[in-house]
Amino acid sequence: MVQVPNTAETANNGPLASSLQYGVASLLARAETVSDALFNAVKKIADSGGWEMGVAWLADESGNLSYQSEWHKAGCDAAGLLGQIQNAESALVAALPGKVLQTGELASASDIRVEPRPALVDVAAGEKRYSALAFPLRYAANTLGVVALFCSSKYDLDDGARRMFEGLAQDIGQFLHARGGYEKRVKQAALHDEVTGLPGWPLFLDRGRQMLLLAERNDSSLAVLHINLDFSAVEQGKEGRHATTHELLARAAERLSSCVRSYDTVARFADNQFTVLLPEMIDADDALVVAQKIIATMSPSLAVAGLEYTVSTSVGIARHPQDGFDMPTLLGQASQALLQAKLLGINQCALYGEFAR
Question: Residue 203: CA atoms inside 13 Å, Cβ hemisphere, count?
């Protein structure tokens, strides 16, 4: 067999191998997303080693490979091969990256010829034959993904190349562990309020749109509640101690959530304001009943950090279809109703339609 020239030269040259690892590490550090990082790293590794194509997969929560990105050399006819690579059920994916995912070890085309499945070169695109190498992206004992490199030349995997790929695999795996967890936390924070754990504003709007579509399809109604809470300490604590706003909001959110059905949505709007989405309102006054229940539930003093706080609640209500047909309109009408409820005094609620006529 003939080695891929650039790969062999890089792997057997300590400074060049270190330079490649440094270059990949720099790309990872500058990447804004995991997707960008994988593409840039694969491009760097494949292009530096003389490979014609590089592909990256990530392992999903079910332990299956999910295609992420691909780079190929200009002029390379990669369409047929890429079509099989993007198909998680293809024999090509099962033959090499699938094997690496299962074993957690680097493998090449020659490694899998003895397996009782089609040889990689026999299932590659068209009549063109490819050689390949794949290595796991590992962190600790977990395989987080796989990178595969393809070329039309055959090659031998020597010890120097193996050490280089193992180093690259470790670097990328460590990045995936850190950045993947970060992106997951960012996504979670965007969907849920960090203080209360309730759905955040984007998630509330999305659910509202979905419920409006169902309401129109089923000719049913829904309501949007806009709630304002005011907290007052019954007695000042020793040495001026008082509960933090976050503690109060978290406890208040628990009470609010206990007032609604499992398929209703309570979300934090801003500061000490909340919104509630009530789908499938059978009677026009059902939303008013829920609002009164919320006020009654919030009325008892709230014990937080060894102190007692009274809670004053104001609720504005807007209903579909009476007061609007989309979320921005309903939220605006509920906010107007909230202002009216505040004018009525403490612990009051108001229906938008009742004062807007």
Answer: 17
